[in-house]
Amino acid sequence: MSTADQLKTEKSERRLTAEARDLTDLEWCHEADREGEVFSVRRNPETFYEVIIESRVPFEQRRQETPPAMWELMEAEVAPIRGKKGFVLSSTIEGGGVAMQEPPALDLLNEMGADVTWLVSDNDPEAFITTKKMHNLQQDVLGAGETFTAEDKAKHKEYGLKNFRGMMENVPGFAEADFYWIEDPQLAAMIPELMKINPNATFIYRNHIQTDRDKMAEPGSPQNLIYEYLRDECAVGKVDAYVAHPVEQFVPYGTEHVVAMPPTSELHEDLNREVSEEEKQEKLQWLDGQVMKQNFLRRYANREQYMREHGEEPSDEEYYKDDQPLFDRSRKWLTGFARFDKAKGQEFNMRLQMLITDKLVSLGAPEELIPHTIITGNGATDDPDRNKVLAEMIELRGTRYADYAKYITVVGLEHDFTAVNVLLANSMYTENFSVAEGFEHRRTEGMLKGTPSLSSNAGGLPLQGKDGEGGFVADLERMDEELDRIADEVVADILDEARYAARREATLQWAEEFSKQELTTVANVTRFARIVNGKGDRKWKIGEMLKDREAEGRRYTQEMGARAAQ
Question: Is the pLDDT reported for residue 564 higher than 80?
Fold first, then answer.
């Protein structure tokens, strides 16, 4: 069924969101079918671990849309891995940046003659509690008493080795690959086993999260315990390439074979493609439906908990206490889209709403100019923190920010890339005030749509644009004054439409000149191939590689001319 036909069918089935009386009226408001997306993914039923990727983007279209010099650079880097067999290993098929980058990149690689298969481990909630704990400890967002224990280590090893055995038994050619690319720590425990059975293969380990080299160097710290475990017992210290975001602080001291590689976005996927007006309206209604759906679920949970604790029906105030307002389409939106995660700094979004509201009121601005803050995100299969952090944000909105609650919506979304596309494109600003961050390329994806960004300077966020390049970047060490500064800028944009229009235009120009070249799929495939070929280094910008290639071509021409003259 085409997208248009599907939308017509859904539209005929649905009741207006405002009229929804219970969850049965919202049955149409479900997560998107991954098999219907531009890059559809599904597990191979014969092997379980292999992911089948199907693309609706013709190869020739990609070639025509890419600047010739970039395409030629990519072809030159991919050529040496044609005929080789490789596996990319990760822990989730959806949710999070890894799962979003793999489909377009691996599809393009295979279209160019490489043979790279994506393998995803099984869904083990107990193991994911441990791997998420490792993630949070490395990002230093847990309490002082938390550390990496022997039980954590045992669970991590058990999960990696269980999936190693499963892949060995079910995935053809798994033991004979030319290279293995391991994404993040979840499956690192299988590296030593792979090195035993296939010692001549190339091994590449990629770290996507913010890690602190100074804390990793501190004996006995949680970060040090995890780092030494991964380095020594999981053989990360023996890999042929250690891939990190282009942030030197992320790289452990003494690490060899370090390669810089940022995450990227895909221009054709549902998250970034052009959306028709009809589809836009459908997805706006879907977003309203998601808010209503969460409201019903929270009411049912509140009633159940109250009756269990008190043996009687709750008051209306107790029953409806977690209700969130629908996205107010009459107001400008300030949208923070990210996983509900301790490191995402989502309370800063509420603080900014408070500051902006107070400033507009003090200026005597009409009430309708006050913007609406949206704090939202999907979950990931390997991320058990989602519901806990979502509940914390809902509670903060209703307590600390109760006076501003009618201008704030906190909602966890089911998976739908097109709806996120519509949300980011129709926001006044996007927000990413993470306190610890690997990269978070929702920032770039907003800028690609002309939506300026408000972010912190955590991790790789500033690499997508410094302060003034596609938005504003706040210094985490001075967050009170930085939020006040940013609030002044947003208020000025609200009061001056021409000023804001110029900012959107400047954001689009930045995305066109920088983001599309450096932070999209062709750049990703180019870097991937360079690393597999052993050419990776700390140089990551495609613009620099193109200059080097051009200079090399000039030198070659000059040398040939000199020889001919002799």
Answer: no
Report the distance separating Cα 421 and Cα 196, nearest Å.
45
| Residue 181 bridge partners (DSSP) | 88, 204
Same domain, 512 and 370: yes
Q: Is residue 39, in this structure, part of any structural domain at all? A: no
Rg (CA), the chain: 24
Q: Rounded distance, CA 157 to CA 98, Å?
A: 21
Tell me the two tokens of residue 470. Answer: 């596609």
pTM, rounded to two decimals: 0.92
* Tens digits of residue pLDDT in 242-264: 999 999 999 999 999 999 999 99
Question: Does the residue 37 lie in any domain?
Answer: no
Does residue 562 belong to any structural domain of this protein?
A: no
Residue 485 CA: distances (Å) to CA of 209, 334, 467, 507: 28, 16, 12, 19
Element housing 430 (H / E): strand 429-432
Kindly tell me if the per-residue pLDDT of 7 is higher than 70: no
Is residue 175 one of the residues assigned to a domain? yes
Buried (b) or exposed (e) across 390-425, using 16+ Cβ within 10 A?
bbbbbebbbeebeebbebbbbbbbbbbbbbbbbbbb
Q: How far is CA 483 from the centre of its chain?
A: 24
Which amino acid would we find at residue 469?
E
Half-sphere exposure of residue 74, counting CA atoms within 13 Å on the CB side?
25
**pLDDT digits over 334-352, tens only?**
999 999 999 999 999 999 9
Segments forming the whole domain that contains residue 204: 73-264+522-540
